[in-house]
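pinned: reference chain
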Amino acid sequence: MSRSIGLAHIVRHADGTSTGVWGAHTLKSAFQPIFAFEDGKLVVVAFEGLMRPFRGDQAWTPAAFLNSVPAAARLHVETLTRTLHLLNAAVCLSPDSTIFVNFDPSVFTEHAVAEAALRDMRLVLHEALIDPRRVVCEVTEQKSGSQEALYDFVATLKRNGFRIAIDDYGAEDSDMSRIQELHPDIVKFDAKWITRLMESGPGYALLATMVSTFAEQGIRTVFEGIEEGWQLELAERSGASMVQGYALARPELAPTSFSVFQAEGQETRSEHARPAAARPEAHDKAAVRHERPARKFGRRQPS
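pinned: its C-alpha cells
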C-alpha cells in the first residue's frame, strides 16, 4: 500500500503511542469519554479524539495552531490529526471502543480531495487494525468548500462502514437541511446552545422535542459541554442518548488511563468518571446550580 499523508508526519514512541510533527509543532492526541444512559447508570460507549498542539514545552490552543496553518495545508493537517487519533486509539483504548474523529467540511473543495481523504482513512485503519465500524466521522458545522463533494464523501464513508455525526448542531451555520442531506447516525448538540435552552422551561421543552424528533428518525443525540450536575439531570430527562463534558470526565493525553478505567467495569467507576462537582479539585463552575436530589455517578441515591 502507498504511504498516507498522515503517516508520513508520525513519530512512534517506545510506549506505543504516536505524536505528529508539523513544522515547529508537536501534535498530541487527547481522548475524552462519551457516556450513554443505560438503566439508570452512565456507561462509557465512545471516545472523541482531540488535538493538543505544542511548540517546545508550550501548549497552544487548537484554534491558535490551526490559524497558523496556511489554507493550502489545512487538508494535510486534518489528515494528520485523524491519523494520530486512530493510531493512539489502537494502543490506548479498549478494542471495542467507538472512536469519534473530526472532519472539516471547508477542505472538501472537489471530489479528488474527498477520494484522497477516504484513501488515507483506509490506509491508517489498516495500519492500526481498526474496523471502520468503530469509527464515527464528525462533520463539523462549518461551510463546505463544495456541498456536492462533501455529500458524496459522506455517502462513500457510509458505504465503507463508517458512521456519521453532525457536530455542534445549533451553532451559527447549522440547519435542518444538512441533517436531511447527510442522514447522520448521530447529532451532537452545541454546548452553549443546549445550556441556553436548558435555562428556561420553553427552551428545555424545545430541546426535548428535538431529541424525540431525531430519535423517531433513528438518529442518536449527544449533549456536549456538560459541566454541571443540573445539566446532566436535564440531559437524561430530555431523552438524550449520550453526554460528554467535564462534569463526567476530562480529556487525557495519550497514553491515557482509560484502559484501566474501562477494565474496572461499567458499575465501578474511577475518579475520572465521577461528576466534577463531586471531585475534590472541582472548581466553582462545576457546582450544582439548582437544588436537586444528590446523585452518585452511575446510579441514583435513595431519596
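why pinned: The chain has one domain: 7-55+68-300. The mean pLDDT is 82.
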